[in-house]
């Protein structure tokens, strides 16, 4: 039973990684719509729809592309940029989700842009290709950790590496306990990308000076960091010990499985369960806790197996000693055959009688 539970747990863990990675990539950070609107059933609307189709189709092959539709009077310009570590299927899924959300948020707008966790999509009726956009679009800062010089120095070192690092459009990695990522839209030149990231980094350190995590999005680039050594603060200040022992470990495994399966059954699919777990910090915490619980359960299974083997050996030894005692002790009664069955009286049917406790044989 325990082995089956562990197998099911690892299967669900694998599905969670797959589904949550897609879910996280498709979660919305910001969306902006142009104040100008186009008229329905016009050539411009047809060009916008054609542009969106081209962007989604291209995202299955590339992590960046840009398009321009014609004729000139109704031209539409658009591009998409997927995060550098996103696979092609997830890139296409993210772009498709971004465009779907754009259609809902900006149904008749001549232009709009949307930033999801995994991709960026923008379109407009005037060309913006290759144009630097250093305006601040979105800023998010986590809880303050105070003036902890050790942590702040590590954050500064990670951000300096991201800005002055490999000279690529996408840069990311772990720097001790600091996780960081930075990216530019690839219609910029590398030098313009460098300028954009330098500007974003300076604003991030000013606005999120002592925060345990921070995000800064400019028009054509962003830079982000998170201090994993302050995981509890990064999770909206919620504290959790994550301590577990024998029985608690097994209970936690079933608890997490129950949460996942209950959400999946209630909604009809695991996708709905994942849709309500799109906060990346909560997702990381659940995965780490589940991993710990599964490891604890595995150790429990090994310990139980060892105890069962030891008990079996003791039982065999006791049986052996009992057999020897029976052979050597003449006072012990030993029946080589089972005793003959005892004769029993016939069934006793009851007759009506004034005394219900009296039974008469027929």
UniProtKB/TrEMBL annotation:
This is Major outer membrane lipoprotein Oprl. It is a single-pass type I membrane protein. PANTHER family: ANTIFUNGAL PROTEIN GINKBILOBIN-2-LIKE, GNK2-LIKE DOMAIN-CONTAINING PROTEIN. Residues 1-25 form the signal peptide. It comes from the Eukaryota. Residues 26-128, 129-230 form the Gnk2-homologous domain. Belongs to the cysteine-rich repeat secretory protein family. Plasmodesmata-located proteins (PDLD) subfamily. Residues 301-328 have a biased composition (Basic and acidic residues). It comes from Helianthus annuus (Common sunflower). It is found in: Cell junction, Plasmodesma; Cell membrane. GO terms for biological process: defense response to bacterium.
């Amino acid at each position: 039973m325990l082995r089956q539970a562990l197998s099911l747990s690892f299967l669900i863990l694998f599905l969670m990684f797959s589904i949550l990675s897609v879910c996280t990539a498709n979660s919305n950070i910001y969306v902006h719509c142009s104040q100008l609107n186009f008229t329905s059933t016009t050539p411009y609307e047809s060009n916008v729809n054609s542009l969106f189709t081209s962007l989604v189709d291209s995202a299955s092959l590339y992590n960046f592309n840009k398009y321009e539709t014609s004729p000139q009077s109704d031209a539409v310009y658009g591009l998409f940029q997927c995060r550098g570590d996103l696979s092609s299927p997830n890139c296409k899924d993210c772009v498709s989700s971004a465009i779907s959300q754009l259609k809902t948020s900006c149904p008749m707008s001549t232009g709009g842009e949307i930033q999801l966790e995994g991709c960026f999509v923008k379109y407009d009726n005037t060309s913006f290709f290759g144009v630097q956009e250093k305006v601040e679009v979105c800023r998010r800062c986590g809880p303050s950790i105070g003036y902890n010089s050790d942590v702040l120095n590590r954050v500064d070192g990670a951000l300096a590496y991201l800005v002055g690092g490999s000279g690529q459009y996408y840069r990311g990695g772990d720097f001790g306990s600091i996780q960081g990522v930075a990216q530019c839209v690839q219609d910029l030149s590398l030098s313009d990308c460098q300028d954009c990231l330098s500007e974003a980094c300076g604003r991030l350190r000013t606005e999120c000076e002592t925060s345990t995590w921070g995000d800064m999005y400019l028009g054509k680039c962003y830079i982000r960091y998170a201090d994993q050594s302050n995981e509890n603060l990064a999770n909206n200040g919620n504290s959790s010990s994550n301590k577990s022992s024998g029985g608690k470990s097994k209970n936690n495994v079933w608890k997490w499985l129950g949460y996942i399966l209950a959400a999946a059954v209630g909604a009809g699919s695991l996708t709905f369960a994942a849709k309500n777990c799109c906060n990346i910090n909560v997702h990381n915490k659940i995965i780490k806790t589940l991993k710990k619980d599964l490891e604890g359960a595995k150790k429990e299974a090994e310990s139980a197996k060892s105890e069962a083997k030891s008990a079996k050996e003791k039982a065999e030894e006791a049986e052996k000693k009992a057999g020897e005692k029976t052979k050597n002790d003449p006072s012990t009664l030993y029946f080589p055959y089972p005793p003959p069955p005892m004769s029993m009286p016939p069934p006793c049917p009851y007759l009506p009688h004034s005394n219900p406790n009296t039974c008469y044989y027929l």
